[in-house]
User: Which sequence fits this backbone?
């Protein structure tokens, strides 16, 4: 499988920066003694940012596996696709 395109890499890195920012906010909130509801809302934002990142990576990978399988009749690409689905759906 080829590496990420510059555009996809930038999108993934931006989403990971959001995850990091949300986590830092949670740490500050706990350190500042903020209300548990506020912390839980921020943790929900962390979960959402991670899920969004996973979805972006998985969609890109699935497209590549399907393209390889169809264009090259590549059985390895189909196995990669199966593995990716198994890992994501755990």
Assistant:
């Amino acid at each position: 499988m080829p590496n990420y395109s510059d555009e996809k890499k930038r999108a993934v890195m931006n989403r990971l920066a959001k995850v990091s920012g949300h986590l830092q906010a949670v740490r500050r909130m706990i350190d500042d003694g903020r209300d548990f509801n506020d912390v839980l809302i921020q943790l929900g934002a962390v979960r959402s940012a991670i899920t969004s990142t996973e979805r972006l990576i998985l969609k890109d990978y699935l497209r590549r596996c399907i393209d390889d399988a169809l264009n090259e009749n590549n059985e390895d690409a189909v196995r990669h696709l199966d593995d990716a689905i198994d890992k994501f759906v755990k």
User: Anything to note?
Assistant: The first helix runs from residue 6 to 31. The mean pLDDT is 85.
